[in-house]
Amino acid sequence: MSHTTSATYLVWSIMSCLLGVFLVFHLWKFDRFKCLKWSNGPYSGAFKRLMTYTYLLSVPCIMVYSIGFAVIKYEEGLTVLPEYGIMPKPWQLWSQTHKSAIFPLYLLFTIAWALEMVTHLEELCFWLFLVNSGSVQQDWFRSLYFKTWVGGSIIAVIYMPLVTIFTRSDPIRCEAFTFLAGSLGSLSLTLWFVPILWTFPSFLKNLKKASVDMRTIVRLTTFHELNCLRIGFRLIFVVPLLILAVDGIRPHQHVNDKMFWTEFLASISAIGCVISSGITLVIFFPRSVETELQSRNATREKSQSRSRPHLRRESDASERDSAPSPSPQKQPASALYSHTASDAREYPPSLVGEGDILLKERGAGLDGPVQGPTPVFSPNRRVAPGIVIQGTVAGSAPAGLTERALRAHDQRMSNVHPFVHNFTSPIDLMNGAQQTQWYVKREYGARAV
User: Fold this and answer.
1) What is the mean pLDDT of residues 394-421?
2) Which of 65, 340, 358, 444 is buried most, with the most CB atoms less than 10 Å from its CB?
3) CA 20 from chain center: how many Å?
4) Contact in structure between 8 and 266 (CB atoms under 8 Å)
5) For 296-316, b where at least 16 C-beta lie within 10 A, e where not — what string?
6) What pLDDT sits at residue 426?
7) What pLDDT is recorded for position 385?
């Protein structure tokens, strides 16, 4: 775009700066930049680090490319040519400092484009793996899709800079072939996403039939909608640059010679590039407002409890003084099934049904026995690795399972891949999740099962 006007690069600069501001804002709201640490979370392995830094490095590269060329174009200004009239000054008339900056800026743009293709290829391979995995307990890091991503990423990182390096002698030709190589690669990845988006609704229906957790269905539905939007903006980014590139490598140009079409295609390409990158940021680092509010409230309560330690000590002392002393007498077993108004307080509240409470309140003067509830024994329940809910004796209606316990039970009984249940982001994956050992806590120790 060295032949286009300075207004085009101004649009690119403004849009890329907005993307940078949104990147900082989103990562701050996401986890206060904790995701940028080298070791963050239990699954922050080499794969997650590579994907995180690969995407984050592409954004400043685009910003430097856009701002750099905008500064050069405004400093060089316009010129008058006898056959063309008033037009942007050609690169041959630029100062030597600005000429020497052309190749580094294009190389930065090429590297950013290659890194972005790496992230999109990873998402493509991951969604293909997730949709086609079914109930097969296959490891993502040993699958053919992962190997395809590794090979494709190496090709993208190598061939994109090489195209720019081999054509750097002529900036116009370098720009045309760089856009051609990048747009063809991105367009192929974008078109490969279309079959996934087409089959994803049926994939969600199968998950619903398999009784997958509703929160997982909601997350996957949200990511499907975001991917649909991003595919549209990726086409807005790639197709205009492909048109300019194909017209630029031809001996007789029909699009690049017209100022309107050059500025229009380059400007809408900037809009598509920035919005699609912003959607990628939301997909890679999805926010949960509910979790953020809970964490914020917990932090506020913790700070308040630290600022007033004397009030907590006084309240603990008053609770100890007002606590009733335990009764030394043991209640016979027959008391569980024979009650009067006087011993209603001694009956454990967790074992009393609503009907028994009404009988005690209305029949205070009755001397006859009141039939207690039939005890139900609940066994120990394993809800997570190393976490076991101890069995209890409940009333006629057993206590309901917690949401976490139900989710763990659904994962064990489900026929879908564990990645579906544990899915939060295409880069936040569990390495060898299907090989995780479960431990049951016993009174005499823990043993692996």
Assistant:
1) 56
2) 65
3) 18
4) yes
5) eeeeeeeeeeeeeeeeeeeee
6) 81
7) 58
Question: What kind and span of H or E run contains 381?
Answer: strand 381-384
Q: Are 240 and 266 spatial neighbours (Cβ–Cβ below 8 Å)?
A: yes
* CA-to-CA separations, 341 to 12, 209, 372, in angstroms, rounded: 81, 51, 14
Asked if residues 153 and 121 have their Cβ atoms less than 8 Å apart, the reply is: yes
CA dist 260 and 256 (Å) reads 9
DSSP string, 319-361: HHHHSPPPPSSPPPGGGGT---STTTTTS-GGG--HHHHHHHH
Q: Where are the alpha helices (DSSP H) in 86-213?
A: 96-100, 102-133, 144-166, 171-209
Q: How many residues are there in the chain?
A: 449
Query: CB-side exposure of 98: number of CA atoms within 13 Å?
Result: 18
Averaged pLDDT for residues 74-78 = 90
What confidence score (pLDDT) does residue 70 get?
95
Q: Tell me the one-letter amino acid at 11.
A: V
End-to-end CA distance of the chain: 63
Nearest to 372 by CA among 406, 348, 400: 348
Average pLDDT over residues 225-234: 94
Question: What is the number of other CB atoms lying within 10 angstroms of the CB of residue 153?
Answer: 20
Q: Quick check: 220 and 204 in contact, CB under 8 A?
A: yes
Per the DSSP assignment, residues forming a β-bridge with 446 are 441
Q: What share of the chain is helix, strand, coil (3-state, %, to 5)?
A: 65, 5, 30
For tokens 């011993």, name the residue: 343
Query: In whole angstroms, what is the distance from residue 133 CA to residue 138 CA?
Result: 7
Q: Is the dihedral of CA 439, 441, 446, 449 positive or negative?
A: negative
User: pLDDT digit string (tens) for 336-394?
Assistant: 444 444 444 444 444 444 444 444 444 444 444 545 555 556 677 665 555 666 666 65
Helix axes 6-31, 259-284, angle to 10 degrees: 10
Classify burial at 413, counting beta carbons within 10 Å of its beta carbon; exposed 0-12, middle 13-18, buried 19 or more: exposed
8 A C-beta contact, residue 256 and residue 244: yes
Cβ atoms 52, 40 nearer than 8 A: no
Element spanning 243, H or E: helix 214-248
pLDDT classification of 404: cutoffs 50, 70, 90:
low
- CA–CA gap between residue 114 and residue 235 (Å, rounded): 17
